[in-house]
């Protein structure tokens, strides 16, 4: 029986790894030309009950602890006038409940754990029919089970459902300050070792320290329409002018937050936020399924990578317990995954509503400090 996984993201790799640990080999087809072809983005917090559970099934939890940053759990919450509302510093001996890890390190760990040749690079999924998957370069490969682990803009998804991601009303600009300890020690001290959030009315600024000394900065605008970037006046092809425009958009904010924007380098990326409908399901179809963002794209409030890892691990365990009946395995997996992702999707939607509300900072404070 041949298992073809489309996408070497966290979910697809977790599936391949847990299958391997259980004596089942699979092939992962990835459209990127190599593991280094594209930057992998910032930090992810990996939770003990979900993402870490998957890494335990993968036999990689000790390796994960070696690359995880417990101090990345630190949190500071502020208002646009500079008022510090909440600060949490992680003690050195705190349990690793949701440590941060660099996405590239986590993906690298999963890639290194697979036998050579498991991942076929440069294979972009184009279509699938009658047990054959076809790639954009004209090549093809057989499958008995096809797993769409191809992320938010999944092409495999269309084989199971007409659902498509819809814009959430939030648009984010990603920026960053390289080597912050050396280049801007004052800003490094301000942001601290973990997450730094400034929540305002219709706008927010987030900053997050990465393992390589870079601080990623996220400027969010909400509610804004899907075509907002075209009308925002932010010239993405001219980073210096884009920073100037962002400084204008944050003109009423405390000087220390504007300094954060001014210190950024020339990475200025527009990131419109989209999600799939919460509670999305489809009638189970023998031979095809989805996992991770392809199945349940959620707002980025800290659950997506955890769900993708756990989906991969649980699908692998279902396949290992029904090695001669992929249909039964897929049904068992989908039943659990639909229920779990609906619950987590509702929770994420509530969190997303809170962080984009006009009084977001006070609402977040009440969340951290109930009663
Ligand atoms: C700014 C931001 C911050 C986030 N922070 C967090 C966080 O702190 N915690 C958390 O849990 N989640 C976070 N998330 C969400 C998380 O990144 C995703 O939910 C997670 O990466 C989904 O994993 P995946 O394996 O489903 O998809 P992906 O990681 O997107 O991987 C999909 C893979 O499929 C490949 N692919 C796509 N199309 C094709 C094709 N046609 N053929 C072959 N290959 C293809 C892609 O190249 C990619 O390698 C964040 C998301 C964003 C945008």
Automatic annotation (TrEMBL):
Gene3D superfamilies: FAD/NAD(P)-binding domain (3.50.50.60). It is found in: Cytoplasm. GO terms for cellular component: cytoplasm. FAD binds at residues 45, 103, 293. NADPH binds at residue 38. Keywords: Cytoplasm, FAD, Flavoprotein, Monooxygenase, NADP, Nucleotide-binding, Oxidoreductase. Its cofactor is FAD. It catalyses: a tetracycline + NADPH + O2 + H(+) = an 11a-hydroxytetracycline + NADP(+) + H2O. The keyword Flavoprotein applies. Residues 2-68, 288-323 form the FAD-binding domain. Its main location: cytoplasm. It comes from the Bacteria. GO terms for molecular function: FAD binding; monooxygenase activity. GO terms for biological process: response to antibiotic. Its EC number is 1.14.13.-. It holds the Pfam family FAD_binding_3. Consists of an N-terminal FAD-binding domain with a Rossman fold and a C-terminal substrate-binding domain. Belongs to the aromatic-ring hydroxylase family. TetX subfamily. An FAD-requiring monooxygenase active on some tetracycline antibiotic derivatives, which leads to their inactivation. Hydroxylates carbon 11a of tetracycline and some analogs. Monomer. This is Flavin-dependent monooxygenase.
